[in-house]
Amino acid sequence: MAANHYEKLEKKVSDCILCGHCDRRCPFHMNQSGRMKEIAACFGKINYIG
Q: With helix as H, strand as E and coil as C, how does 3-46 read?
């Protein structure tokens, strides 16, 4: 189910440039940019350069 939802997203983890903007804006104070590698590994076929 998660993979299906991910495939429909407009932006993918490969679009991340690790600028940290999402970290500063997260209302839950999560390290979103730090999770990008985890997300890339989960969906395997993503060309993550970070």
A: HHHHHHCCCCHHHCCCCCHHHHHCCCCCCHHHHHHHHHHHCCCC
